[in-house]
What we know:
Layout: E1 9-15, E2 18-23, E3 30-31, H1 33-46, E4 55-60, E5 65-67, E6 69-70, H2 72-77, H3 86-104, H4 106-109, E7 114-118, E8 121-123, H5 125-131, E9 135-139, E10 143-145, H6 159-166, H7 170-179, E11 183-184, H8 185-191, E12 196-198, H9 202-217, H10 221-236, H11 239-253, H12 257-267
Parallel strand pairs: 2-4, 3-6, 4-7, 5-8, 7-9, 8-10, 9-12
Antiparallel strand pairs: 1-2, 10-11
Helix pairs in contact: 1-3, 5-6, 10-11
Amino acid sequence: MSSLESKYIKISNPAPHVLLLELNRQPVNAFNTEFWKEYGRTFDALSTHPDDIRAVVLSSAFPKVFSAGIDFQGLINLGSNNTTDPARRALLIRADILDIQHAVSAPERCPIPVIAATHGLVIGLGIDLISACDVRYTASDAKFSIKEVDVGLAADAGTLAYLQKITGNKSLVCELAYTARMFSSEEAEKLGLVSRVIQGGRDAVVAAALQLARDIASKSPVAVSGTKRLLLHARDHSVADNLEYTATWNSAALQAMDLQQSVKAGMAKSKESPKFLPLKPKL
């Protein structure tokens, strides 16, 4: 996996078909331009990587912080240019914001399930990052904040777009976004931002996320990748549209050998999971 590792992202392979991606910019994983560009490129590269990767865990390399959000110097320089014309400056700033949004949403584009394992401080852009992941676990020591209003702007990299779709508590979303107040792991679970609170800190939540990743990796990669695609389509389309899309998708996916292998293993009541071919067989 050395081909994927970069200056600010550590990558390891703790279990078959499972990757652990650790944010690794000292001292608090504050995102500058180089960092968020690396982040987006890494997840986009996973989409076409030849290795048989079936689940990814995203965490931090540091024990007390997941991410402190955007680097303040980078924020001040956002959209800086030589033009004084407001319309032209706005176009350049808009392009910068769109680039950040594209990078932050890369886990959603990735066909592989991505599990966020948060702990410590999860501030501002840190919430944007995990909102684009498929599953979110958190350690009980985590503290969250939608921090952007405290620095004079509305959150613009994903939090406001995602949160009302991943939680049914619009009132709490508004309260947290309007005030930037810190909230606990328990409140994050109540909000629906995370699905599990793991007692402990970084090591405990990463262990739980890796166990989930191993479970996912044991399933048919055709089925898991298809499920991710269909869930995302359902979020953004009507029921009727999604049913038609699913029929078209599965007209191809049902022809995979994975279905026969799974059915045979189930009928035989085998204690061992069937062995599936990689999603992208090597030529």
